[in-house]
């Protein structure tokens, strides 16, 4: 991959412009520290191709454990991401506070192509849309959730486990909202503004 360097004036705005510009690409991984002093990564590709001697971005789900251990899971999967997915980016942005490094595949892009893409990215206006109100439901009831938390606390006190990250899905009934259109990128930006965690990511897979 070849590298170009470029100066930016507003890191957060540039990252939102990147998300908007590349929203139709097949694969996106944006690793976001929400810290101006740390480097963020934004990887994009229209291919699932992986190069063992190059960058690879992706994920391995918890249920992949069933392929390498004698374990089974019977969990509802409303998202239906693959259990494992990686790709080598066609273009990769290393985003610092006032500077970006752009790594690009020379079989796909020229330096002039990248300069033209940068010009288009920086011209994008970010307008957050008002989303139709949707009733979002927890996959686990409040009573069951609290019961599960108490049982997990007991396991921690007994020493069976020492740490747990207990999560659950929130969803909208698709039968009730068939005509509602939302922008995943817009939702991500709004969620990230409300809760700027140090390990935020946006992942698009097909």
Write the layout of secondary structure elements.
Layout: E1 2-7, H1 11-21, E2 27-32, E3 40-45, E4 57-60, H2 65-68, E5 84-87, E6 91-95, E7 99-104, H3 111-122, E8 137-138, H4 142-158, E9 170-171, H5 184-194, E10 200-205
Antiparallel strand pairs: 1-7, 2-3, 2-10, 3-6, 4-5, 6-7, 8-9
Summarize the structure.
The chain is 27% helix and 23% strand. With 206 residues, the protein is an alpha+beta fold. A hairpin with a 3-residue loop joins strand 6 (91-95) and strand 7.
Features:
206 residues; alpha+beta; 6-stranded antiparallel sheet; two-stranded antiparallel sheet; 5 helices; 27% helix
Structure description:
The structure is a single chain. A hairpin with a 3-residue loop joins strand 6 (91-95) and strand 7 (99-104). The chain is of the alpha+beta class and 206 residues long. The two termini are 24 Å apart. It has 5 helices and 10 strands. The model has no long low-confidence stretch (mean pLDDT 91). The protein has helices spanning 11-21, 65-68, 111-122, 142-158, 184-194; strands spanning 2-7, 27-32, 40-45, 57-60, 84-87, 91-95, 99-104, 137-138, 170-171, 200-205. The chain is globular.
Widest sheet: strand ordering: 1-7-6-3-2-10
Cα-to-Cα separation, first versus last residue: 24 Å
The gyration radius over C-alpha positions equals: 20 Å
- Number of DSSP E strands: 10
pLDDT < 50 runs, ≥5 residues: none
What is the string of helix and strand elements? Answer: EHEEEHEEEHEHEHE
Shape: globular
Mean pLDDT: 91
- Percent range of helical residues: 25-40%
Report strand %.
Answer: 15-25%
Helix vs. strand class:
alpha+beta
User: Which sheet architecture does the biggest sheet show?
Assistant: 6 strands, antiparallel
Number of helices: 5
């Amino acid at each position: 991959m070849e590298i170009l360097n470029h100066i930016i004036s507003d890191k957060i705005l540039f990252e939102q412009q990147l998300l908007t510009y590349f929203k139709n690409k097949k694969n996106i991984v944006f690793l976001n520290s929400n810290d101006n002093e740390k480097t963020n990564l934004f990887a994009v590709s229209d291919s699932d191709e992986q190069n063992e001697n190059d960058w690879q971005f992706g994920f391995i789900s918890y249920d992949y454990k069933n392929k390498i251990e004698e374990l089974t899971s019977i969990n509802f999967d409303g998202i239906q991401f693959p259990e494992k997915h990686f790709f080598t980016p066609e273009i990769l942005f290393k985003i610092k506070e006032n500077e970006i490094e752009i790594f690009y595949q020379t079989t796909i892009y020229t330096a002039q192509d990248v300069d033209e893409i940068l010009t288009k990215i920086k011209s994008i206006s970010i307008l957050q849309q008002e989303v139709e109100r949707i009733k979002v439901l927890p996959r686990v009831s409040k009573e069951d959730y609290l019961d599960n938390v108490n049982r997990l606390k007991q396991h921690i006190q007994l020493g069976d486990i020492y740490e747990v990250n207990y999560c659950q899905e929130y969803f909208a009934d698709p039968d009730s909202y068939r005509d509602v259109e939302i922008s995943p990128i817009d939702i991500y930006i709004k969620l990230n503004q409300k809760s700027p965690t140090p390990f935020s990511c946006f992942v698009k897979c097909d």
